[in-house]
């Protein structure tokens, strides 16, 4: 089995971890960028074939499949894919000053 190139795999892992931390309502709002990436990579190897819509929780897995397909078809530009994943991750970053961990107890 052929693995994704290390830098792409690392970027995808970081994106998936951040995605899993998002509350569902935020994931739904942010899903447009991830959906566009999925469709972009699908178009490289499956032109004209519609990509099934999946729930937000499954979108990082669907992106992984599309990246893998593009890599196997020798259509994946590693540097571009890494930059694309980094941009997607940056879009998911919490606003400055927002705690990045789980919410703590409320204080009055």
- The mean pLDDT is 89
Structural class: mainly alpha
Order of helices and strands: HHHH
Helix content: 55-70%
Report the sheet-strand fraction: under 5%
CA-CA gap between termini: 55 Å
Structure at a glance:
With 108 residues, the chain is an all-alpha fold. Helix content is 62%, strand content 0%.
Q: What keyword list fits this structure?
A:
about 110 residues; mainly alpha; 4 helices; globular; disordered C terminus
Explain this structure:
This protein has 108 residues and is mainly α. The chain has one domain. Helix content is 62%, strand content 0%. It has four helices and no strands. It is globular, with a radius of gyration of 15 Å. The relative contact order is 0.19. Mean pLDDT is 89; it is low at 104-108.
What are the SSEs and their pairings?
Blueprint lengths: L5 H16 L2 H22 L13 H14 L5 H15 L16
Helix pairs in contact: 1-3, 1-4, 2-3, 2-4
């Amino acid at each position: 089995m052929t693995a994704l190139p290390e830098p792409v795999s690392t970027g995808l892992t970081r994106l998936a971890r951040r995605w899993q931390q998002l509350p569902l309502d935020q994931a739904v709002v942010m899903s447009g960028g991830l959906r566009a990436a999925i469709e972009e990579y699908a178009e490289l190897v499956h032109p004209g074939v519609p990509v099934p819509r999946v729930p937000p929780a499954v979108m990082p897995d669907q992106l992984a499949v599309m990246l893998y397909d593009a890599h196997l078809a020798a259509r994946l530009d590693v540097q571009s894919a890494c930059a694309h994943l980094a941009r997607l991750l940056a879009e998911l970053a919490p606003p400055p000053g927002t705690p990045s961990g789980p919410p703590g107890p409320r204080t009055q």
